[in-house]
Amino acid sequence: MVDDHEVVREGLVAVLAQDPRFEIVGTASTGREAVELVRRTRPDVAILDLRLPDTPGDALCRELRALLPDLAVIVLSSSLSEDSVRSAIEAGASSYVTKAAGIAELRAALARTGPGADGPPMTVSQIVRRLQQFVEERVDDDAPTPQQARVLQLAAEGMTYREIARRLVLSEATVRFHIQNLKLKYGAASKTDLIVRAIRQGLVAPDEGGGP
C-alpha cells in the first residue's frame, strides 16, 4: 500500500485487513520507500497512489514492474480521465481505481488482479465507464453508511478517535478513515466543520453535555 496521506493509507489497510482474501505485507509513503518495500517483501499486488511527493505514479509503476515483473499494480487516484487511466495502464498497471469510487470497488479491483484473478483485464474504456458509474451512484446516495453514521454521531458527542474506536470495537485508523471519507463527501475542511454541517443537515444530534 503506497500513499503519502497517512489517514488514507492506514484507513485502507485497516479495512482491507478485515478481508480474509488479502494480506497486507507493508505500507510506504514515498516512491523510494515503495521500491525498498517491494524489493524486501516481493508482494503479489501493489496499491499505488498516482501522486507521491518524490516520484510520479506512472514512473514508479514502471520501476516496480521492472524490479518485480510479476507484480500487479493497482493505481489509486483522486482524478478520472481516459488519459490518466491510459497513462497508468501503459506504465504497466493492471487496474485503476478512483478514491471516490469507494472501498467496494478497490476490493473488486483486487479480486480481478494478481493470483486467482477473476476474469480478463478490463480495457481503458471499460475502467472509465465502471468508475464513472460508481461515482455517480455514490453521489446519488448522499447519506452516510450505518457505520459512518455511528462514528459521526459519537464524534458530535465529543468523543475522541480512540474513544469512538473503543465504543464501536474498531481500530482508530478505521475511525479516522471514516471521518476522512465523510469530510470528502460533505466538503468539510475539518472534523469540526464536518460535525457542524452534519448537525445542520440533521444527520446527527448535537451534544447536549449529558455524556454518553
Tell me what you see in this structure.
By secondary structure, the chain is mostly helical. The chain folds into 2 domains: 6-140, Rossmann fold (3-Layer(aba) Sandwich), CATH 3.40.50; 146-200, Arc Repressor Mutant, subunit A (Orthogonal Bundle). The protein contains 10 helices and 3 strands. The protein has helices at residues 6-16, 31-41, 57-67, 82-90, 103-111, 124-140, 146-156, 161-168, 172-186, 191-200; strands at residues 45-49, 72-77, 95-98. β2 (72-77), α4 and β3 (95-98) form a beta-alpha-beta unit. α2 runs parallel beside α3 and α8 packs across α9. Residues 208-212 have low confidence and may be disordered.
Cα Rg: 18 Å
DSSP, total strands? 3
Tell me the CATH topology of the largest domain.
Rossmann fold
Q: Indicate how many domains the architecture comprises.
A: 2
Order of helices and strands: HHEHEHEHHHHHH
Major β-sheet, in short? 3 strands, parallel
Share of helical residues: 40-55%
Looking at the overall shape, the CATH architecture of the largest domain is: 3-Layer(aba) Sandwich
Defining key terms:
212 residues; mainly alpha; Rossmann fold; Arc Repressor Mutant, subunit A; 3 strands; 7% strand; phosphoprotein; NreC/VraR/RcsB-like_REC; Sig_transdc_resp-reg_receiver
